[in-house]
Amino acid sequence: MGPYARIALLCEGVTFDPDGCMNIIRIISRIIVPSTVALPTNCMRKFVFGIVPNGLLVGETPLTIQVERPSKQRNPVTIPFNLPQQSATGYTMAIDLNLEIVEFGLHWINLLFADLLLTRIPLSVLSEQEIRMASVQ
To answer: Which H/E stretch holds residue 109?
Structure first.
């Protein structure tokens, strides 16, 4: 029934060509926190998502990006999203996402549209020291 997630990812940046095509720069699946940085710390990333609505949702619909930490604590951010009309190709957006990193481990970025879970994106947060120790073993 939809809506459907066409794409959802974290990246370093996004550019748009004159014809409207989106260029995604450096897809991120993990963040390595330098040993000189203490937690909590903030990390700005682009969150890119594309949806294909089912045609039933028109007008302002809440879009929620929910960061679920390894401790299961969830920090939702809700953005009003306007669907002006039916689109066969859907909508693609890139928004700045200020991630507050307070713990190491596997985080999940949940994308909810009108309170319907569309997709989940895994994000590993590792310490630089943890990476060094793993490479020695």
So the answer is: strand 105-113
Q: What is the pLDDT of residues 41-77, one digit of tens each?
A: 888 788 888 876 665 566 788 889 999 999 999 989 8
Q: Which residues contact residue 32 at a Cβ distance below 8 angstroms, ignoring those fewer than 6 apart?
A: 126, 127, 128, 131
Name which of 53, 62, 55 is nearest 112 in CA terms: 62
| Cα atoms in the 13 Å half-sphere on the side-chain side of 130 | 11
- The pTM of this model reads 0.83
DSSP character string of 8-68: EEEEEEEEE-TTS-EEEEEEESEEEE-TT-PSSEEEEEEEEEEEE--SS--EEEEEEEEEE
Q: Find out whether 42 and 33 touch, Cβ atoms under 8 Å.
A: no
3-state SS class at 134: helix
Close Cβ partners of 116 (under 8 Å, ≥ 6 residues apart): 3
* Cα–Cα dist 117/21, whole Å: 26
Q: By the 8 A CB rule, do 63 and 116 touch?
A: no
> Quick check: helix, strand or coil at residue 132?
helix
